[in-house]
Amino acid sequence: MKTKVLGTEAACGTSTTNGSNFGSSTAVRLVNSGTTDRLISVETSANVLIGTFTLKASVSEIVEKDASDEIFAANAEVLGVGVAQTS
After folding, report:
1. What is the mean pLDDT of residues 1-9?
2. Per-residue pLDDT tens over the stretch 65-76
3. E strand or H helix at 66
4. In terms of CB atoms within 10 Å, which end of the chain has fewer, N or C?
């Protein structure tokens, strides 16, 4: 699989009121640029929590979500960008 970048990487918001849908992307590449594990939250556009997970320090992960769903992190050391998986 290849990853196609769909936007500009930016620090994640750090609360439910400033999450991002990353340009309505349905896949988001997250990277924890820090040395501390960080909690990631995914919620609907109406700020209803869908779920959370811990992103280990210095690790990246691709999260699939609905286009309007938003992501925020416990710290701005977590960076995100909308992506598409291609073959």
Report:
1. 94
2. 999 999 999 999
3. none
4. C
φ/ψ of 72, rounded to 5, equals -140, 165
Confidence grade of residue 5 (pLDDT, cut at 50, 70, 90): very high
**Tokens in use for 67?**
């286009």
Name the CATH topology of 2-86. Jelly Rolls (2.60.120)
> Token pair of 81, please?
């960008």
To which residue do tokens 């050391």 refer? 77
Tell how far CA 3 is from the center of its chain. Answer: 15
Q: How far apart are CA 78 and CA 87, in angstroms?
A: 27
20: amino acid identity, one letter: S
pTM for this entry: 0.94
